[in-house]
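Protocol step 4 of 6: structure prediction from sequence.
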Amino acid sequence: MSTLKEVGERDGWRCWLCDEPVDPNAYVNAERGPSIDSGASPKTKKAAAGAERLAHRSCNTRKGAVKPNVPWSPELFVVEPAPIVATVQRLTRKGGREVVARCPSQADADKAAAWLLDRLSRFAPQLAVTTQVEAGGGQFLLVLRAL
């Protein structure tokens, strides 16, 4: 089991759930204070190897023993975005490629692709992926491909 400081430094002091900064000097029992999510399975109560991740106390508590909801940035112009957690789980399990969103312009798709790669580098660092933007039907599809 790692210390809070070790996990915080490894994760760049950012919450893996909400992607907001975590104050390393905040009181650990404060709502926005730092905590470690062990990644323990609700059924086994056992953490997966290397699954410790930094989270705000409130984010970790709200998640509890259920699957987290990782939202897309509200600053992106994406239509019908795929759920990030389910997408990561499928690509981890099966590999391949998945269309994760539609965008009205190439610029919107490029911005969404850059954001998604950055977000996944913290949310699922074990998953190696690339993005691809495909034009078609007057829209641009954002594709995520497991390596």
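Step 5 (inspection) to follow. Strands lie at 34-37, 53-56, 97-103, 129-136, 139-146.
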